[in-house]
Amino acid sequence: xxxxxxxxxxxxxxxxxxxxxxxxxxxxxEAGYSVDTDEELAEYVIVNTCxxxxxxxxxxxxxxVELAEAQKKIVITGCMAQHFQAQLLxxxxxxxxxxxxxDYHKIVDVITRVEKGERVREISAEPTYxxxxxxxxxxxxxxxxxxxxxxxxxxxxxxxxxxPQLRGNQRSRSIESIVTEAKELANQGxxxxxxxxxxxxxxxxxxxGQPKLAELLRALGHVDIPWxxxxxxxxxxxxxxxxxxxxxxxxxxxxxxxxxxxxxPEILRxxxxxxxxxxxxGIMERIKTFLPSSVLRTTFIVGFPGETPEHFLHLxxxxxxxxFDHVGVFTFSPEAGTPAVNLPHQVPAEVMVERRHKLMxxxxxxxxxxxxxxxxxxxxxxxxxxxxxxxxLIGRSARFSPEVDGYIYVKxxxxxxxxxxxxxxxxxxxxxxxxVVNSYK
Length: 441
What we know:
Blueprint: E1 6-11, H1 15-30, E2 34-35, E3 44-49, H2 54-69, E4 73-78, H3 79-83, H4 85-91, E5 95-99, H5 107-115, E6 120-122, E7 145-149, E8 151-152, H6 163-167, E9 171-172, H7 175-187, E10 192-196, H8 205-208, H9 213-220, E11 227-230, H10 240-248, E12 255-261, H11 265-270, H12 274-277, H13 280-290, E13 295-302, H14 309-322, E14 326-331, H15 349-372, E15 378-386, E16 393-396, E17 408-411, E18 419-427, E19 432-436
Parallel strand pairs: 1-2, 1-3, 3-4, 4-5, 5-6, 7-10, 10-11, 12-13, 13-14, 17-19
Antiparallel strand pairs: 8-9, 15-16, 15-18, 16-17, 18-19
Helix pairs in contact: 7-9, 9-10, 14-15
């Protein structure tokens, strides 16, 4: 295999993209290719692009241009390849292939064809593929953490979102398939798995005829992994049964990532999420009643077309009232091909930026107050990094999800990839600081 080219992968975008990257790496390594993290040493660079919002597209384009200037052979995969396939091939002569979101499993065949001189466009019009526990995978996360995809695609049609067009309709894996992969990850020493899909609370609807998230959580309760975390729990899917499953399954963290997007019923109706406007406050109260220890994260979009000062004030008051642990705020990004592009009363960019700043400013003391409540407690922390110069350890408690929330900076000794008790000594708005408890063996 010595004459095969060296390949590097540049990963951009979300954790769903990350899993696609990990499967491509696994398939290439299995086929005998040399995969290098250093793009300068590689003959080919696979760029797994994101096309969710304008900023993500700009980052993808910047990466592609830099690689083209370095005269690399570029294979473009992911959402941007699905979205702009013809333009990318036309405008980037260095692009030797474009591969769609439902075709990344063909990456070895694509490289083989490119090596024979073909310029490849491998893109299914409607993605239907989903990898399972049999698909090779090379993890790129820290050793204690792994993302576990339970479903791919989305059946909702939110007015601002291009994802269903790029990733297809929902297709779930079976409970048996997910549990098998979770057990394999446990055997590899993983301490935390993060369940992801576009709408995790809708898991199983397509293959079982009804959502089966509660059954999946209970099944994962029998896997030897200390932390099971969910991302993208839509509020409508937090049924009594799902809440009970979280309560009754010790390794399922009461961490709820609720992508609410807004609070005002009129804006939610314009977003094509009218159902949510009827239940926002109700579901928040239900969570607080039945899961009082829950950690709540959400994301909001400010500046959606038609958002008035009154609508924005409603969002500020909603955020203040419910005191989320973590909040992410995005300005509205008009995506070609989505209904929101053509809506009247588009909000000026400077107003959107100002509103984002105001909402984040409101949230900061709330996050600080929540973090201060941890001071003096001894909490379990998953150690993920070590600063080679200071020896300081960096990790997360169950309150923090990777990359989107804060960190815990830890003094003391512990192995990477282990969960250790840490006494929290101080806090700021985003992070915590503590010391490994000496009794830890």
